[in-house]
Design a protein that fits this description.
The chain is of the alpha/beta class and about 375 residues long. It has two domains: about 230 residues, Response regulator (Rossmann fold, 3-Layer(aba) Sandwich); about 130 residues, Response regulator (Rossmann fold, 3-Layer(aba) Sandwich), CATH 3.40.50. About 45% of the residues lie in helices and about 20% in strands. It has 14 helices and 15 strands. Strands 2-1-3-4-5 form a five-stranded parallel beta sheet, sandwiched between helices. The chain has a four-stranded parallel beta sheet with strand order 7-6-8-9, sandwiched between helices. α1 runs antiparallel to α13, α6 packs across α7 and α13 crosses α14. It is globular, with a radius of gyration of 21 Å. The N terminus is likely disordered.
């Protein structure tokens, strides 16, 4: 059985110390008088983790998430009285796999589950946790409205109804586009939601939508849709798709010469897709919740630790997952318990908690609230859009 107790003071000092940059055991021990240091937890706390370790979603989403969770766990466990362990389940990059993974962890008796990147999977898997009274906390999923599944559901990624309007406002103000095209994956929940929010924001800004093209998850040839778009001569092309299809759209748009005459705006674009698309991604604009360029307290330290641990640059999905575990640990500390309902209530009250994403809060629906960022690919790298 999972222990239903927690060393509250140890969590308080561990989290506060790491938040403000006290990274070593020696430094944290210097701010905790020996008389106040509680004994360590006998068995600790076990948290369920669901990521794509295999399949198409593993490289772009699942493996970065797993690395972010694990780095945060190791940091927290450096401190006396903190003993977090994971039960990790592979969703195998499928909806059925995600459903089975949530059920397995619910049966295991974990008080909280973190992970699940893909909104399609979350939409059908998280209701199992909700009905079972288990906290379900996605670090990446961002389709609008999914936290309305229930009061045990929370998300770290900025939902597209927060992210996309902000990105449209910033890019429209700077670029002054008046007519645009849209292409999105009609078979994917995130992509449909992203496209809907883009349309609403563009129409509210008085921008004309010349054409709207669709694709389907698993498609590989988008030449017909992109030719139709090119023939309409838009000022900008907005792309809403997951990593595999997104990359191919960018590459094939480049082959048609679209980036030379049309501004590409790809909300979920990361360094992974830029590397895969190479020159075709140059000049593309991304909307995101995290950037390695930020000097938010703790962010550069995270980037250095991540590179030292894994030998690669930190990805946004790793950063969001890293922040997720800290947010969850803070809620457990405030709850003074590992009871799921107590953790749920403490998460719901999270306000202005300092993370590498910025000061983090939940709205009344369990959706993340912090400042989004707009980036642009320059010389093959994401830079601040100015």
């Amino acid at each position: 059985m999972i222990t239903r107790k927690i060393a509250t003071f140890a969590f308080i000092f561990a989290i506060v110390a790491l938040t403000i940059g006290l990274s070593s055991c020696e430094r944290i021990s210097s701010v905790i008088p020996d008389a106040e240091t509680p004994p360590p937890m006998d068995e600790g706390i076990t948290i369920g983790v669901i990521v794509s370790q295999t399949g198409k979603d593993a490289e772009p989403y699942g493996l970065p998430m797993e690395r972010g969770f694990e780095l945060a766990r190791k940091e927290l466990n450096m401190h006396d009285g903190v003993n977090i362990s994971f039960v990790t389940v592979d969703d195998m990059s499928t909806e059925d796999g995600a459903i089975a993974a949530v059920q397995e962890l619910v049966d295991e008796g974990v008080p909280a589950i973190v992970g699940i990147a893909i909104s399609d999977y979350l939409e059908d898997a998280f209701p199992i946790a909700q009905e079972s009274g288990v906290v379900a906390f996605s670090s990446v999923s961002s389709a609008a409205g999914l936290s309305s599944i229930g009061n045990y559901v929370f998300r770290t990624g900025l939902a597209v109804d927060i992210m996309n309007p902000s990105g449209v406002m910033a890019t429209h103000e700077k670029l002054g586009y008046t007519k645009v095209a849209l292409i999105y994956d009609a078979a994917d929940t995130y992509s449909k939601s992203s496209n809907d929010e883009l349309k609403e924001a563009l129409e509210a800004s008085g921008v004309e939508i010349l054409i709207e093209e669709t694709l389907q998850t698993g498609d590989t040839d988008f030449s017909e849709q992109l030719t139709n778009i090119m023939n309409m001569a838009p000022d900008a092309l907005f792309v809403s798709a997951l990593s595999v299809e997104m990359t191919q759209v960018i590459i094939q748009a480049g082959n048609l010469g679209i980036p030379d005459t049309v501004q590409l705006i790809v909300p979920d674009l990361t360094a992974k897709e830029i590397q895969d698309a190479d020159d075709a991604a140059e000049g593309a604009i991304a909307f995101t919740g995290w950037t390695g360029l930020s000097n938010i307290p703790g962010n550069q330290e995270f980037i250095q630790k991540y590179h030292a641990e894994y030998g690669i640059d930190a990805e946004p999905w790793a950063a969001q997952s890293y922040a997720t575990l800290y947010i969850l640990a803070n809620a457990i500390m405030k709850a003074g318990s590992t009871d799921s309902a107590a953790i749920r209530d403490a998460l719901a009250q999270t306000t202005d908690f300092p993370t590498i994403l910025g000061n983090f809060s939940f709205d009344e629906n369990g959706e993340a609230v912090y400042d989004p960022v707009v980036l642009m690919v320059k010389d093959g790298e994401l830079q601040l859009f100015e």
